Amino acid sequence: MKLLALTTALLGTVALGIASSAPSTAPAAAPAPAAIPAPAPFHCQVPCGIYGDSMRIDMMREDAETIAKGMAQITEMEGKDSFPYNQMVRWIVTKDEHATKIQELVSSYWLAQRIKAPKDAGGRDKYLHQLELMHGITVAAMKCKQTTDTSNVDRLNALVTEFAGTYFTEEDLKHLEEHGKGH
Q: In terms of CB atoms within 10 Å, which of 25, 29, 38, 53 comes out highest?
């Protein structure tokens, strides 16, 4: 990721004619942080009009399933007199990474691009409810990082399901349910 950002910044500098044509023996200075464009982790945000809303719901459910498995593995290891510390650390990191992925997906995809403020008062209640659900999903993911209490994963899954119910049509929900049976 850093290499991509550095290459992009360097190419931008060369394209603007700022780079010196004479070779330098001095080490190159790192570009200013503002000059490095950060790639969007979940979607282009151009807007390109290409969205995979049901896929994003599946991604959140899969992340929640990974969190639950991590919690189970950590709890099982904690109950033993002797356990591999490195394996426990790996499960903790994995659990936390998947919770962070959910939080980033909520902010970068759902809140930034898909949940739209209503143009009239008619859609205000639905909009506010969706915002409340997205906040709840973010908080539940945070709580999954803090503990191995599986009730936080249950809450997370319930909120994702409730959000899907406010966002998709009945036909879409039926497809999501059938598709999600493998999880």
A: 53
